[in-house]
Amino acid sequence: MTNDWIKTRLKNVALFRELSDEELDSIVKISQVRVYKPRTFVFMQGEPLERVFFIQSGTVKIYKTDISGKEQIVSILQTGEMFPHAGFFRRGSYPAHAEVMEEATLIVIPIAEFEQTLICYPELCMKLFRVMGEKIIDLQNRLEEQILHNTYEQIILLLLRLTKTNAVLQGRFHRLTTHFTNRELANMIGTSRETISRTLSQLKRKGLIDIDDNGYYLIDAERLEKEIFL
């Protein structure tokens, strides 16, 4: 890929959107493009933390595993997003696995060189802090969901969160843009696949969710929100 191709794509990333050509060129110079096939790993939990990644196309699953091999999905990332966010503020190893779900084209930036760029352009550093702040708020909200809501409510809140991060509006429904298995949904909130299956069936009977011909979930976010906040 040419530098012009990388520059055009980086302009669409929220973190870089308002940078001048000079500032953006400094990022392009240290960037590379890599293509990953489905079911391959961008990195694995515990590997040396050396690079950050920006998704130009495709879907990447971020998840942790414990000593017994149990999976906890942290997030499902798509075009325009970066990972790992902790990469700029810690040393050592990657805190989670990054596995490609749908073929992904990623722009790769070495952390050491990016940190030098942040020093040269403080406004970029401030933008990064804002992005990190949004992630911290998201994690706080997830913790509150675990503490304050039962499993049925947690599943509804998960679906509502996915309508904001992994969906497009289609009539009165939000259509999820990623295929999620019941196991993957269960691993996002630490419940069982059977509980997810039972709850989704219940929500479908109520007309709050549906599945289109291609197997993507359709979610009536407005009515689903009323289901939990009545």
From TrEMBL:
GO terms for cellular component: cytosol. Keywords: Activator, DNA-binding, Transcription, Transcription regulation. GO terms for molecular function: DNA binding; DNA-binding transcription factor activity. Signal peptide: none annotated. The keyword Transcription regulation applies. CDD domains: CAP_ED, HTH_CRP. Gene3D superfamilies: Jelly Rolls, Winged helix-like DNA-binding domain superfamily/Winged helix DNA-binding domain. It comes from the Bacteria. Residues 149-222 form the HTH crp-type domain. Residues 15-135 form the Cyclic nucleotide-binding domain. The keyword DNA-binding applies. This is Bacterial regulatory s, crp family protein. It comes from Anoxybacteroides amylolyticum.
